[in-house]
């Protein structure tokens, strides 16, 4: 059963887990705030099932990395933490060290499992009193189900599920809807104006004097030639000139009309499906998401 690092098994594993990347999570002793190290990587089997977390125990044992079976871990993605279950510093010191060139074969896994199978003093006494023999393991027939407490993540007392939902986020984009060009041009037309003018003319009137036929003395009758009367005549002509004047003003400006538009789309929401198989479920609702205990 060959083992691989998760990134070697699937380069796009981050898209598959749909949550925080396990790499880089801090590791704490379960039930305490004692930090013991950091998750360096994860190891999966040929089916892609999680088997181990590679933990750098820099805060406990400088420079040492060990394998932590997934059944001995509790992942709290909300706190971005991993809790190590039932592991002591003495136990960690006795675990085989993991290095980059370490072959993850059956023999190495057995050394790792042996470190976690080591019973406590109380459990050893209980086994002795009941005369229960320690199980034996065969490399040819071994399955991870034989160490369910080390690999069965379903045996966790508490599991955290993240339920996601989509929501519509309304933004505004400015787009051009048209263009208005405003200019001016010159139009011509023919107009007529009436101008009163005066013109002079000569009127010659011949009249018969009252004393017509009366004899006058030779001295009075002055006969002569070349006598000329000169009269200057004038007339007015229309003198038309053009003047420009301000007729009107045109003001151009933009105004903003506001309105509310409604948009709609389909969003998704994850809901929790619980199959209790006849068992009682107690649901507790706090400040975080609902948590079901089965």
Could you name the CATH homologous superfamily of the domain at 4-160? Photosynthetic Reaction Center, subunit H, domain 2
Shape descriptor reads rod-shaped
CATH fold assignment of the domain at 4-160 = Photosynthetic Reaction Center, Chain H, domain 2
What is the CATH C level class of the domain at 4-160, in words? Answer: Alpha Beta
Uncertain stretches of 5 or more adjacent residues: 120-132, 287-294
Termini Cα gap: 32 Å
In DSSP terms (H or I, runs of 4 or more residues), the helix count works out at 6
Mean pLDDT: 81
Tell me about the biggest sheet? 7 strands, mixed
**Element string (H = helix, E = strand):** EHHEEEEEEHHHHEE
Structural class: alpha+beta
What is the radius of gyration? 57 Å
Overall helicity: 10-25%
Number of strands: 9
Q: What fraction of residues sit in β-strands?
A: 5-15%
What does this structure look like?
The chain has a domain of 157 residues: Photosynthetic Reaction Center, Chain H, domain 2. Helices cover 14% and strands 14% of the residues. Strands 1, 2, 3, 4, 5, 6 and 7 form a seven-stranded mixed beta sheet that branches. A two-stranded antiparallel sheet has the order 8-9. Strand 2 and strand 3 form a beta hairpin. The longest helix is centred in the middle third of the chain and has 12 residues.
Give the arrangement of secondary structure elements.
Blueprint: E1 4-5, H1 6-9, H2 13-17, E2 26-29, E3 35-44, E4 50-56, E5 65-69, E6 73-76, E7 81-84, H3 89-94, H4 106-117, H5 121-130, H6 148-151, E8 282-284, E9 291-293
Parallel strand pairs: 2-7
Antiparallel strand pairs: 1-3, 2-3, 3-4, 4-5, 6-7, 8-9
């Amino acid at each position: 059963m060959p083992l691989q690092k998760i990134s070697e098994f699937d380069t796009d594993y981050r898209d598959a887990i749909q949550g925080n990347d396990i790499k880089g999570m801090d590791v704490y002793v379960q039930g305490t705030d004692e930090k013991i190290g950091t998750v360096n990587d994860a190891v999966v089997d040929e089916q892609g099932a999680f088997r181990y977390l590679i933990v750098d125990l820099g805060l406990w044992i400088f420079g040492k990395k060990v394998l932590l079976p997934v059944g001995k871990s509790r992942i709290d993605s909300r706190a971005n933490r991993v809790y190590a279950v039932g592991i002591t510093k003495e136990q960690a010191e006795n675990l085989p060290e993991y290095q980059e060139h370490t072959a993850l074969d059956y023999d190495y896994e057995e050394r790792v499992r042996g470190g976690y199978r080591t019973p406590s003093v109380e459990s050893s006494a209980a086994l002795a009193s009941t005369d229960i023999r320690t199980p034996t393991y065969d490399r040819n027939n071994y399955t991870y189900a034989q160490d369910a407490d080390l690999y069965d993540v379903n045996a966790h007392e508490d599991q955290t599920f993240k339920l996601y939902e989509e929501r519509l986020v309304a933004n505004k984009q400015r787009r051009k809807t048209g263009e208005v060009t405003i200019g001016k041009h010159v139009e011509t037309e023919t107009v007529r104006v009436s101008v009163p003018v005066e013109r002079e003319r000569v009127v010659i009137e011949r009249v018969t004097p009252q004393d017509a036929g009366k004899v006058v003395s030779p001295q009075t009758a002055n006969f002569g030639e070349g006598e000329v009367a000169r009269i200057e005549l004038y007339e007015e002509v229309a003198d038309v000139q053009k003047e420009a004047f301000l007729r009107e003003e045109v003001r151009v400006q933009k105004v903003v009309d506001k309105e509310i538009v409604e948009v709609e789309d389909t969003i998704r929401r994850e809901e929790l499906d619980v199959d209790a198989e006849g068992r009682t479920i107690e649901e507790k609702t706090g400040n975080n998401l609902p948590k079901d205990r089965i």
